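Data availability (excerpt). All sequences and predicted token strings are deposited with the supplementary files. A representative entry, SWIM-type domain-containing protein, is shown inline so that the format can be inspected without opening the archive.
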Amino acid sequence: MIDDNSGSNGGTDEILTCTNDGEHGSGVPTTSTTQVRNGSITRCHCKASVKLRVNSEGLWEVRQHIIEHNHPLTPPQWQHHHRSERKITEAEGEVIKAMTEAQVAPSVQFRVAAAVAGGDVFVGHTKRDHINFVTRLKTLSIEGGDAATLINLLTSRQAEDPGFFFRVQFDEDRRLCHLFWHDSMMKEDYLLYHDIVIFDTTYRINRYNLICGAFIYPATRHRLCQWHIQQNAISHFRSLKHDRTFQNVFNKCLNGCYSETEFEGTWLKMIKDYGLDDSAWFKRLYNIKTKWCTALNNYESTNHAMGFQASKTTSLTEFFDIFETTVKRWRGEEERKEFNCIRSTPTSVYPLVDLLQHASQVYTLELFRVFEKEFALATGTRAAILPSEDSVLVYRVDSPGAEGSSHHVTFDCDNNLIECTCRKFQVMGMLCSHIIRVLHIHSVPEIPPTYILRRWSKFSKADVWNRLLPNDMRRSAANDAINWRRSMLTNLNNLVTKCQNMVAARAIIEKICATANDEVQTLFRNLHMDDDQTRDEVQDGAILDHVRCTTKGMSQRKKKECR
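Structure token line:
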């Protein structure tokens, strides 16, 4: 601590005092409504200090030195915990900002920083400092208002992507109450894969307790989220909680049955084998099976599919960033798989007969593996022809020793139409092992075109990629700054690593960095670049945030304080 005092001779005294000088709470006004917080006292009137003054020659000289402290001194190995030793530099702040934008948790960020620095001692700040810095970053990002900042983000995205669309709705107080958006690729995906749409209202994702839904339409049917069923089921397993066999059977009932007959047989066997006849929870779950059984409907919940890292403290702007990051991750994975499909053809452990050969040419790599598995199952089935009329043939196909595996396959030879009672094609759009068995019996060389869905084919999105190429090129041009930054960070990191063990080399780097920093700052001033431009734009809006919701129960912070 430094105090400025005018000396008797007109000079200036600089007094460096101990950090434990003073009195706890001094200078802080208190009222009857001030909440008293529990804490520890570090100030204990320690008078240790050093008094300095500039002499006639312009040099600092020590005028007084009080050595004695009235408290234990900090051991050298703990010096880095002092506030004076803790600082987040501008460069470190940029790295933290980048990791925050990438949805990396603050605690994970600090562990990465500690690993790079060689330990917590050498990071330069504590984990609490790191978390506080991230909190300030998030606060600054919505300084002009959460809703207004989000709308500015959507507007900027619309300027980048001509196909980006969004609409907002406000209440009578100009508070944001409804928001809808999609980009050009989302629209193309829906036009291509719009056979089913799920509106998931079970996941509340932010501080306003608002519901997140991908789409909503008038004609909807309510479904239960399997992810929530799996989470709740654990508390009802009791002694079966650690029985892996039981859990496998239960999971098969949830999402491993392809027909209602198979589900009924598996469920009844599970209830009988594990003595669950008197369980009210399992009875209630069975009574609402149409809302969760994949043999009757098949979907994945939004929060399980997206893996949101959101909570009740998440702002709308943060949620939009999380959503965008998730979509980018999906699309990056999709592009990688598209690339592999275009440049490669799958092999098989089975002889590539005509049917398998054709499947390898039309299906994606992953879907070919699904078809290959069904083909393998077909080799273990037996088929018996049943009495039929005209050119329509009916087969009973089953697997020896597998209870409830019998299904009827109807094959119209003249029109090349085929159907199975397991209805796997109607559910997944893939031929089942029973149909493959019948096709193989009739030596059908190729999968009938009617049963090759475009969504599963190799080139399902070829037209989409070509149509959206101009938008991608525009975004690539906008990402030049990111590519330059990545390249420069790599080069500078290599240079600093090379010079770290040589004092003379470090001096050269420090001099160059200082000069470059001065020149860049001068350039920014000349160009009148205002870092607060975005916040100024937000301030102009009169859009208010949704009323913040206070949920039931005690927060995690309060729970920790009560322990």
